[in-house]
Specification:
Blueprint (H helix, E strand, L loop, with lengths): L8 E3 L6 E2 L16 E8 L2 H10 L2 E6 L2 E7 H8 L4 E5 L2 E3 L2 H9 L14 H6 L15 E6 L13 E6 L7 E2 L7 H10 L17 E6 L6 E3 H18 L3 E5 L1 E3 L4 H12 L3 E5 L20 E11 L2 E4 L23 E4 L3 E4 L5 E4 L2 H18 L5 H13 L26
Parallel strand pairs: 1-14, 8-11, 8-13, 9-11, 13-15, 15-16, 16-18
Antiparallel strand pairs: 2-3, 3-5, 3-6, 4-5, 7-12, 9-10, 16-17, 19-20
Bound molecules: calcium ion (CA) (3 copies).
């Protein structure tokens, strides 16, 4: 259950991106001519865009002249001949198979109260082995883009400000049901507040506000245009509400995705701090995934509760950056930036109880929570000032344990372990 490789969400570039039309009658699915595929359309000008929008139902308006929609292969081929548009098939995103099994079985029994209120990762990031509760993050939003969140969980209910679904229809719909568990676990590490009676579990920044955005289905599958739409929606919400916002993406792919990367750049341009998992494909060099590998996303590596060379150790599963660009304390594409606890992490689960799982997916919300906590204490800071502060905190706690970790900035742990104290 704690095998980390099974937890990280990998974007798998499927050979066939065809999406079957949903039907109550399974027999009709074999009718390939009616099968629809998810497509991104970019028109050269607004009139062309309008004309195409008239033919197809828009799923997401992603850029000024670009939108995603669904169409048949035949329609896709026809549109490819139109010189005024560029059409590309939208990449599909899936979880690793093991978490699908877990979601299907949902075998963890719901516990009314946690066996630990401040798990090892919380004590470690607070740098206090006697830490019994947490505090901070007031007024800062943490957008968790994941499989959804059980917003009725006793230790999360009071933190929820938004709960939206980007996987269900062509518009943002309310509801963010987590039939998987992953998203609820991630949210708990960032901002679980111990519940109304204070007897529950604590995340890093319990006064922060949760924006639970479901971008992956309960089976762990989803589409990159839905993720991109959620990133852009987060940025627009942050702008319209005038609030500081951190995006947590405990998901990734070995390949760069243009819809997601342009959305990350958009969010960053709007002052949103983007934190993303490094991936679970370590310990070899160059295994870091996207969007973490992007310059505008803070890539987070996972630490184990093991000491080596006098520091915490980077887990073997944690994806590594490149030796060619490490050591300079400058973030380039493909660099690991910060490390945080990510192995054997105990947190909230979608059945209302708790579960222990591992992955850079678990390390990421520790950093997102820390960012919210620091931002609440320094509300005048921009996201780039906040990022510099996180980097400085990491520099102050160099990580030297684990494959590739050495003194100073390295390709396994980045600048080091960013902590509260
Ligand atoms: Ca990065
Ligand atoms: Ca570097
Ligand atoms: Ca180091």
């Amino acid at each position: 259950m704690t095998n980390s490789k099974k937890i990280f969400m990998s974007i798998l570039l499927t050979a066939s991106l065809a999406m079957p039309t949903f039907s109550a009658n399974a027999d009709t699915i074999s009718n390939n001519t009616e099968e629809k595929i998810r497509v991104y359309v970019e028109a050269s000008d607004t009139p062309t865009k309008s004309a195409i929008k008239g033919k197809f139902k828009v799923r997401w308006e992603l850029t000024e002249n670009g939108f995603s929609t669904e169409m048949t292969e035949k329609q896709f081929s026809a549109l490819q001949k139109n010189k005024k548009v560029q059409v590309t098939k939208v990449q599909e995103v899936t979880l690793d198979t093991d978490i699908k099994v877990r979601a299907a079985n949902n075998q963890v029994a719901a516990a009314e109260y946690p066996t630990q209120q401040t798990p090892w990762g919380i004590k470690a990031i607070y740098n206090n082995s006697n830490q019994t509760t947490t505090s901070g993050g007031q007024g800062i939003n943490i957008a968790v883009l994941d499989t959804g969140v059980n917003v009725n969980h006793y230790d999360l209910a009071n933190t929820v400000e938004q709960c939206k679904n980007f996987t269900g229809s062509t518009t943002v719909i309310s509801g963010c049901n987590d039939g998987n568990g992953h998203g609820t676990h991630v949210a708990g590490s960032a901002l679980a507040d111990g519940g109304s009676d204070g007897a529950g579990i604590y995340g890093v920044a319990p006064q922060a506000d949760l924006w639970a955005y479901k971008v992956l289905g309960d089976n762990g599958s989803g589409y990159s245009d839905d993720i991109a739409a959620a990133i852009r929606h987060t940025a627009d919400q942050a702008t319209s509400t005038g609030t500081k916002t951190v995006i947590n993406m405990s998901l990734g792919s070995s390949a760069n995705n243009s819809l997601i990367s342009s959305a990350v750049n958009y969010a960053y341009s709007k002052g949103v701090l983007v934190v993303a998992a490094a991936g679970n494909s370590g310990p070899n060099q160059g295994t870091i995934g996207y969007p973490g590998a992007l310059v505008n996303a803070v890539a987070v590596a996972a630490l184990e509760n093991v000491q080596q060379n006098g520091t915490y150790r980077v887990a073997n599963f944690s994806s590594r950056g490149y030796a060619s660009t490490d050591g300079d304390y400058v973030i380039q594409q493909g660099d690991i930036e910060i490390s945080a606890p990510g192995a054997a992490i105990y947190s909230t689960w979608n059945n209302g109880g708790y579960n222990t799982i591992s992955g850079t997916s678990m390390a990421t919300p520790h950093v997102a929570g820390l960012a919210a906590k620091i931002w609440a204490q320094n509300p005048g800071w921009s996201h780039t000032q906040l990022r510099s502060d996180l980097q400085n905190r990491a520099k102050n706690y160099d990580i030297k344990g684990g494959t590739g970790a050495t003194t100073g900035d390295d390709y396994a742990s980045g600048f080091g372990f960013a902590r509260v104290n």
